[in-house]
Amino acid sequence: MADWEKRWNPLRQEWIIYAAHRNKRPWDGKGHLASKPEPSYVSDCYLCPTNTRVNGAVNPNYENVYVFDNDVPILGLHAPQVNKSAHNDLYISKGANGFSKVICYSPDHSKTMSDLTVKQIAKIIHEWKKVTLQAKEKQLASVLVFENKGEITGVSNFHPHCQVYATDFIFNHTLLELESMNKYREERNRNLFDDILQAEQIDKNRIVVENEKAVAFIPFFAKYAYEVMLMPKMKSKTLLDLKYSDIEEISEVYLQLIKKYDALFDMNFPYVMSIMQAPLQESNLDYQMYFHFQPPLRIPGIRKYLAGPEIGGGNFMADTIPEVSAEKLRSS
């Protein structure tokens, strides 16, 4: 296994360059320490039970998962209706149609998802499924569930929560994956997602956690040091395809993975988690939904910064080899 090579990402159609020897270079930048422990209740937290939110609404004294419409939404079903174009349709403006929701995982401000039980996580995934159904029923095109965990991801509130954006357009990363999937089907008459899952299960050395119905692995083409794809083994284009028993076992893998994250550097491990799903109004038989974890830390205290190659050139330069990272995470 080389520590200096480039690898092709067949899902996003891009080269990732790996240069593990660059970890020896001097570093004068600022490190990132673990966040301080949070109390169970914070009086001015707009997500804690019984507190007043920014729009004046008062949270109920909730005991489990709590879902509400974002008070300052980026998308709305009643957003201003805009339909403008200029310069022969070179510049186009449309209404920001859709909806934005906030899902609180627990009433306890101090907890993260890794502090919850398998059943509690299963309940959260069921809520993600309900919101996906709502988006489909409202004839929206796409739904993205995401969690920004940890201060260095830019999270604005440390209360355990995620957000949902349901849109009338398909998210760019999904569009690119659909293009890659269709191209792969045309060229090889095979399912790209099936082949990725099969390849990871054959190689095994990048798998972190696995059970009968789900597997979490650092992909061969990972960008971030501890990036993980958690993929159900059953055919599931969106969360709507998951049965109750599927969700229970997926929750087990989910919990084991994030506990390993916390144990890796002995800290409340930060990450951005996104649920990648097929378009809601289309029949994309080849698409496979998955949970995508992208943690910014590459070694303890030091994050992966996007610089010239990533921002300017559009190609990712990684300082770690996926197989090495998988072994460290698997053993944590």
Describe the structure.
By secondary structure, the protein is α+β, with helices and mostly antiparallel strands. The chain contains six helices and 16 strands. It has one domain: HIT-like (HIT family, subunit A, 2-Layer Sandwich). Helices cover about 25% and strands about 25% of the residues. A hairpin with a 2-residue loop joins strand 14 (about 295-300) and strand 15 (about 300-305). Helix 1 (about 120-135) crosses helix 4 (about 245-265) and helix 4 (about 245-265) packs across helix 6. The radius of gyration is 20 Å and the shape is globular.
Classify the helix fraction into a percent range.
25-40%
Identify the CATH architecture: 2-Layer Sandwich
What is the overall number of helices? 6
User: How many strands?
Assistant: 16
Strand order of the largest sheet: 3-6-8-7-12-13-11-10-9
CATH superfamily: HIT-like
The helix/strand series, from N terminus to C terminus, equals EEEEEEHEEHHEEEHEEEEHEH
Instruction: Classify the secondary structure makeup into a structural class.
Output: alpha+beta
CATH third-tier fold name: HIT family, subunit A
What Rg do the Cα atoms give? 20 Å
Highlighted features:
three-stranded mixed sheet; alpha+beta; HIT family, subunit A; 332 residues
Short description:
The chain is of the alpha+beta class.
Topology summary:
Blueprint: E1 4-9, E2 14-19, E3 66-69, E4 83-86, E5 91-94, E6 98-104, H1 118-137, E7 142-149, E8 161-167, H2 172-188, H3 192-203, E9 207-210, E10 214-217, E11 228-232, H4 244-264, E12 271-276, E13 290-294, E14 297-299, E15 302-303, H5 308-313, E16 316-318, H6 322-331
